[in-house]
Amino acid sequence: LSGGRVIHVVGVGWLEEAFDANGVPFADRGRRHDDYVEAMRALWTQPKASVHNTYVEFDQCISRPQPAQSIPIVVGGHTRKAAERAARIGDGFFPGSGSIEDLGAAFGIVRGTCATLDRDPGEVELTASGGGRNFDELCARVEQLIALGVSRTILSPLPEEQLLALAEGLQARFGMDV
Question: Which of 37, 75, 114, 169 could bridge across to 86 with cysteines, CB 3.0–4.6 Å?
Answer without folding.
Answer: 75
